[in-house]
Amino acid sequence: MAGEILDNNGRGDAGWSWPAIHPEGRKFGLISAAIALFFLLALDWEIVGWPLVLVTIGVFAFFRDPKRVVPQDPDAIISPADGLVTMISRTAPPLELQMDDGAGSRGMGTEELVRVSIFMSVFDVHINRAPISGTLRRLVYIPGKFLNADLDKASEENERQHFLMEREDGSLVGFTQIAGLVARRIVPFVKPGDMLAKGQRVGLIRFGSRVDVYLPAGTEPSVVLGQKAIAGETVIARMGEAKLVEGIAL
Fold it and tell me: Site feature Cleavage (non-hydrolytic): at which residues (predicted)?
């Protein structure tokens, strides 16, 4: 993946900067800004116009797309989403990821795997990223409901989009974007067959939602419940590593 090398030996040049606004969100921000200016300048309704200015700032903030420093450990599986780790459970992968697709792409099987669920509030960055480097073998969109994304049944009933990625060694990692109460559209940036770099942007979910990650067999998570995950940076697991990780809420 193209970008400047930053490492623990001090290489690189890092500094704070305003995050970019993803193109997908610029139109929403401009529409909100135009409405706010109409109330402020054309109608002189400050009681409506100024709150709309705050809404405009919120819209631009929602679609912010900050740079991320992606760990290059080949065995690291990184978080595809910003948010709170709200569920870690063992469950069979979704049907859309289980079986062969009939075109030579194998699935993850029907055995239970570890699923790590990351809940994104409206205050989190909503650009989702590839958890590993490899080929996108499957991308399946499923229409559905808009239940609270924090509910377990949301993974089966809500609008969602499944990704299945394969590393060079054949290891499979699946993940699912799930719409929530406020989210109303899942937007992909990639298509099946694409070669993706770890941390590459793959899509977004508009206005609050959840991402489930299905780890390969024999792999346990490196994150704990209640931990804050950062897309493209937080290592949520390492291939083939299975050990207990504990934390204390303070």
Answer: 208-209
